[in-house]
User: What shape does this take?
Amino acid sequence: MLPGQPEPVPLPGNAAVDAAIIGEGFADLAAARRLRQIDPALPVAELAASRLAEGASGRNSGFMTDLPHELTSDDYSGHGDDRAMIALNRHAIAFAQAADDDYGINRNFFDPVGKINGAASPTADALNRSCAQHLSGLGEANEFLDAQAMTTATGSRHYLSGGYTPGTVMLQAAGFIRGFGEGLRASGVGIWENTPVIAFARSSTG
Ligand SMILES: Cc1cc2nc3c(=O)[nH]c(=O)nc-3n(C[C@H](O)[C@H](O)[C@H](O)COP(=O)(O)OP(=O)(O)OC[C@H]3O[C@@H](n4cnc5c(N)ncnc54)[C@H](O)[C@@H]3O)c2cc1C
Assistant: This one.
């Protein structure tokens, strides 16, 4: 869905940097941004095995959620008091939002629109109800949509219910990762693509 990228620029030769980050995923790009926030002049390089956005971070479903999404719990909502995790998630979303603003990433690639968890079976409907109770118990905003409300929202009679939560950002993940990498590059971070790290050698300059 995105236009092609310019030709990749691999690491052209030896480079001396204070921080070399291996990879081009969310964690790697966020680390580079954070290091440059702490020291705007710090020499930083990202060594990316492939192209920007060709890994998991650029090819996922794009749900950047603030609420627990715990697949091992009965209703995805977690195992108890998730307030610390929710706070951490919101901190991360704010970090991503600030990067989006600073790097001028296309607004359509970072859309704070919330999400609806649709249930198409009685089991899933029960999970939606249980999740809504859990969230309300935590004081978290959520809205339970019945079958009629889901038909109105989706145009389909497929769903028995839906759980709307407002804090999810929908990413166009590849566009967001590309924009993040381009923003870092424009700020002086070396983004070297097609540059897999194949070995480490420890050395000391004394
Ligand atoms: C199909 C799918 C859907 C998903 N949907 C969601 C979702 O909706 N919401 C959500 O929050 N999460 C989702 N995820 C999970 C999410 O994509 C990952 O948790 C996230 O991308 C992990 O980011 P990361 O930076 O830790 O690792 P990665 O994105 O995997 O980045 C690591 C990078 O390191 C590079 N690398 C590895 N070894 C080397 C090396 N030796 N030299 C150089 N580079 C190297 C790789 O090329 C890779 O790009 C989904 C995952 C998949 C696969």
The chain is about 35% helix and 15% strand. Residues 22-28, 47-50, 55-57, 60-63, 196-197 surround flavin-adenine dinucleotide (CB under 6 Å). The first helix runs from residue 26 to 38. The two ends are 51 Å apart (CA to CA).
